[in-house]
Amino acid sequence: MSVALRITPYALALARDWSSARGGFAQRRGWLVRASAGGLSGWGDCAPLPAAGTEQADVAEAALARVLGAASALGAEALLDRLEALTLAAPAARHGVESALLDLIARRRGLTLRALLAPAAPARVAVNAVLGALDDDPGTALSAAAARGARVFKLKLGVAEPRTERARLRELARHLPPETRLRLDANGAWDAATAATMIESCRALPVESLEEPLREPDPATLAALQARAPFALALDESLAGPLAGLAPERLGVRRLVLKPAVLGGPRATLALAEHARAAGLEVVLTSVVESAAGLWVDAQLAAALAPAQTHGLDTAAWLAEDLGVAPSPREGVITLPETPGSGFTPCPAQAP
Ligand SMILES: O=C(O)CCC(=O)c1ccccc1C(=O)O
Ligand SMILES: [Mg+2]
């Protein structure tokens, strides 16, 4: 049975500006992808964010047009087989279309998306709260997230002076509830000496990991920093940049941050996660601040590939509007539905 694709552009305002050492954004633009066959629809989100390692929007749009052109005569499985060739160098476009096709297949088989991807995947996904940059009054965000029961708090570093950030970090850590921890992300802000100083000053703090410490990441420097760090160092956007294609065990860090929109969809993300975990690395799945259509898929995928980890999927509150109801954590956990597919239902304006 052939599959009908519909691709609809969207623009969603942010509730508050996103800032990081790689710049920020005040709006998210992308395409909602619907794949329909036999009266059922699956949904995906193509949400390019070049700063995170995806293609530019015009490249995504061209790839989506190629997929549309090829889709009409093909069934969902046949289109999945051809998708990689149709979306070369367009991972966000591939993620959007592949998600919609897998969601459709799951709904057709009466399976949750996580069960389609990994039969034993649980219905609970722990997530970190995102407090924003360390110069944006994270204390207020910390109180709000702590009140909602979050256990891991993510902070963007490398936005202010290292000395200022060290002082603010110590101050913030004094207000952390018991048994909660900080997840830090420098987004490539530091040279090796600054990174070493920052890691050293975190030694006494409840830090669980630090993403992308280095402006010019190389495995030897990362390995030296990791050897001295009492917590996991992690790579994120470098996996699509200077370190693309290197085997996980050669990267020098203990953890990989996997963004399906950067890696080219659920299947590529699962394959990298399996490789990394077999090599003894931790993996964490995170969003690129996607719409609800993307977040539901990402959350199902997180449950399938690292069920015991805390993932970076609590980004819906950064959007002032959305395409449907987004997964919303309680006590730091997203509960996934037992209904077939991803759990996404479009709001009436986008409806089937
Ligand atoms: O990890 C999270 O909790 C949310 C995702 C996130 O921080 C992010 C979102 C968009 C672009 C880059 C990043 C990042 O981790 O660097
Ligand atoms: Mg990151």
TrEMBL record:
Q: Which residues does the record give as Mg(2+) binding sites?
A: D185, E211, D236
Example GO molecular function term?
Answer: magnesium ion binding
Q: Which GO terms describe its biological process?
A: menaquinone biosynthetic process; peptide metabolic process
Q: What class of enzyme is it?
A: lyase
**Substrates-to-products reaction catalysed:** (1R,6R)-6-hydroxy-2-succinyl-cyclohexa-2,4-diene-1-carboxylate = 2-succinylbenzoate + H2O
> SUPFAM superfamilies, from UniProt?
Enolase C-terminal domain-like, Enolase N-terminal domain-like
Q: Which cofactor does it need?
A: a divalent metal cation
Q: What is its EC number?
A: 4.2.1.113
Could you list this entry's UniProt keywords, alphabetically sorted. Answer: Isomerase, Lyase, Magnesium, Menaquinone biosynthesis, Metal-binding
Residue ranges of the TM segments: none
Active site as annotated: K156 (proton donor), K259 (proton acceptor)
List the pathway annotation.
Answer: Quinol/quinone metabolism; menaquinone biosynthesis; Quinol/quinone metabolism; 1,4-dihydroxy-2-naphthoate biosynthesis; 1,4-dihydroxy-2-naphthoate from chorismate: step 4/7
The Mandelate racemase/muconate lactonizing enzyme C-terminal domain extends over 135-232
Query: InterPro entries from the entry?
Result: Enolase-like_C_sf (IPR036849), Enolase-like_N (IPR029017), Enolase_C-like (IPR029065), Mandelate_racemase_C (IPR013342), Mandelate_racemase_N_dom (IPR013341), OSB_synthase_MenC1 (IPR010196)
Q: What does this protein do?
A: Converts 2-succinyl-6-hydroxy-2,4-cyclohexadiene-1-carboxylate (SHCHC) to 2-succinylbenzoate (OSB).
Q: Which family does it belong to?
A: Belongs to the mandelate racemase/muconate lactonizing enzyme family. MenC type 1 subfamily.
Q: Do you know which HAMAP family this protein is assigned to?
A: MenC_1
Specify the protein name.
Answer: o-succinylbenzoate synthase
| Native source species | Marichromatium purpuratum 984
| Gene that this polypeptide is encoded by | menC
